[in-house]
Specification:
This protein is α+β, with helices and mostly antiparallel strands. The protein has helices at about 1-30, 150-155, 170-185, 240, 270-280, 290-295, and strands spanning about 75, 80-85, 90-100, 135-140, 165, 190-200, 205, 210, 210-215, 220, 225-230, 250-255, 270. The protein folds into two domains: about 1-30; about 55-330, Extracellular Endonuclease, Chain A (3-Layer(aba) Sandwich).
Length: about 325
């Protein structure tokens, strides 16, 4: 009888070892954080960093990366522009894009704005209604009319990661006029490299000063900035090689203030160096150091011949501000 019990011990030990192993595996799995669903990549967007993206030809101002753990400096490279997204603010840090003649057309505007479904799992997705009744416009950074050659290009700009809260008199007056002036340079046989974004916290809309909207999900900037580098169309496709210390650069810092801003934008011209100072970003880092240094110190002095008002926008049935007449080339 004793020998039979003795023979069972190896089997019992094996069963104990297996049980301990299973328990360890189960506990270890429980302690691991749940893996978020893998973000899918559609033809509309890729978040893989591509240093050769035409939209980042002059550099990546904040050294944004496509690492989703960097939620407040998350790089998204789309077919028609690139951006650094700030999840805490619910807006882009900056959007960067190139404009050439082939980008311009007469495709219609999209009637509403879409959440960006390409944001990684766990990011806050801002939606169209988050701006409703806020006293601020849904202000494009990369404008619809810079991408209206086709309906698909136009629709790509109606994504909330490309939008910031802009005071109506900024969005519909001076900022719109600056956008229109920029497109005229394209029609005059130039290519543009543009980067734009918000600065600070607290803007004045229709209903006074607000720090945030959408229940705190979206930060209202105190100002909006833009840098436009104007390169001749002629001379081949190597636009970096065309940029010299004499290249025209328009840098703007415009208050996000409905009471302060009117039709004129030219008075808000400043230097790229000043935008760097206020944002902490670095521009022109793919240019030779001497050329970049010279361009950063310049303040554009070209006389702006006409800054006449655009027709005022209409309202849709919901009370939201609709676009100004397309014939005015507002965006």
């Amino acid at each position: 009888m004793a020998s039979r019990h003795h023979g069972k011990w190896p089997i019992i030990l094996i069963l104990v070892v297996i049980a301990v192993g299973v328990e360890w595996y189960v506990q270890n799995r429980r302690e691991q954080p749940a893996k978020p669903p893998t973000a899918t990549t559609s033809p509309a967007t890729t978040t893989a960093a591509r240093p050769d993206s035409v939209h980042l030809l002059l550099g990546n101002p904040s050294d944004a990366t496509a690492d989703p753990t960097h939620r407040d400096n998350y790089l998204m490279i789309k077919p028609y522009y690139a951006l650094s997204y700030n999840n805490s603010k619910g807006t882009a840090n900056w959007v960067s894009w190139r404009v050439v003649a082939a980008d311009l057309g007469d495709a219609p505007r999209q009637p509403s704005f879409d959440p960006d479904t390409q944001l990684p799992y766990g990011f806050v997705r801002i939606v169209h209604r988050d701006y409703s009744g806020s006293g601020f416009d849904r202000g494009h950074l990369c404008p619809h009319a810079d991408r209206d050659a086709t309906a698909a290009m136009s629709a790509s700009t109606f994504v909330m990661t490309n939008i910031i809260p802009q005071a109506p008199n900024v969005n519909e007056k001076a900022w719109a006029r600056l956008e229109s002036y920029s497109r005229r340079q394209v029609r005059r046989h130039h290519r543009l490299y543009i980067v734009s974004g918000p600065i600070g916290v607290g803007g004045r809309g229709l209903d006074g000063i607000r720090q945030t909207i959408a229940g705190g999900k979206v930060t209202v900037p105190s100002a909006c900035w833009k840098i436009i580098t104007i390169v001749p169309e002629a001379g081949g496709d190597d636009d970096l090689a065309k940029i010299t210390a004499d290249t025209r650069v328009i840098a703007i810092i415009m208050p996000n203030d409905n009471d302060q801003v009117g039709d004129q934008w030219s008075g808000y011209r400043t230097s790229v160096a000043e935008i760097e100072r206020q944002t902490g970003y670095r521009f022109f880092d793919r240019l030779p150091a001497d050329v970049a240094a010279a361009l950063k110190q310049k303040v554009d002095k070209v006389r702006i011949a006409s800054e006449q008002p655009f027709p005022r926008p209409t309202y849709d049935e919901s009370g939201d501000r609709a676009a100004a007449l397309e014939s005015a080339d507002v965006r």
